[in-house]
Design a protein that fits this description.
Cyclophilin; 188 residues; single chain; 3 helices
Length: 188
């Protein structure tokens, strides 16, 4: 897929994990640089083999750190792609299934690490760059978020006891689909 000539709003990505696949779509109008960076890194295989290194049930699951690959020597949660992106804050609400960029205290420090919101996280609104959302696979999000965790280096109970990684990310044309909430209601 030629990312230079393809409208990023017409792309979806299948994140194939050890727990199943999550299909995500993107918000290029709100976060064009973050979407473009994620898609390029995904296409280059940057995320292949990277684990979910930080999991906080009912809050979020975080991934995207190259230091979380098997055999990496750096502290998971401290690595990136070698560049930072300027903040692209928007009014999109941090709710279940939202993809948002992780960063340090500097708003312009996002790189490759991102998180998928598992629970209500309004306190992050307009402070973190939202760049996509899960269209399919919220059950996979739940499965990853339910992994038991130990206390990590920062004193937070977020260090997963079980390794779950992104095996690959497949970029493909965006499919038309009904919102997951409607599917759930129609199934009852």
């Amino acid at each position: 897929m030629d990312l230079e000539t393809t409208d990023h709003a017409t792309i979806e990505a299948a994140l194939v994990t050890d727990k199943g696949t999550m299909v995500v779509t993107f918000f290029p109008e709100q976060a064009p640089q973050h979407v473009a960076s994620f898609l390029k890194l995904a296409q280059d295989g940057f995320y292949d083999g990277i684990s979910f290194h930080r999991i906080v049930r009912n809050f979020m699951i975080q991934t995207g750190c190259p230091n979380s690959k098997e055999g990496a020597t750096g502290q998971p949660g401290t690595g990136g792609p070698g560049y930072n992106l300027p903040a692209e804050f928007s009014d999109i609400h941090h709710e279940r299934g939202i993809l948002s960029m992780a960063r340090s205290q500097d708003p312009n420090s996002a790189g490759s690490q991102f998180f998928i919101v598992h629970g209500e996280a309004a306190f992050l609104d307009r402070s973190y760059t939202v760049f996509g959302k899960v269209e399919e696979g919220l059950d996979v999000l739940d499965a990853i978020a339910s992994i038991d965790c130990d206390f990590g280096p920062g004193g937070e109970k977020s260090s997963p006891q079980e390794r779950v990684e992104i095996q690959s990310i497949e970029l493909r044309p965006r499919q038309e689909r009904a919102p997951q909430e409607e599917e759930a209601e129609n199934g009852n």
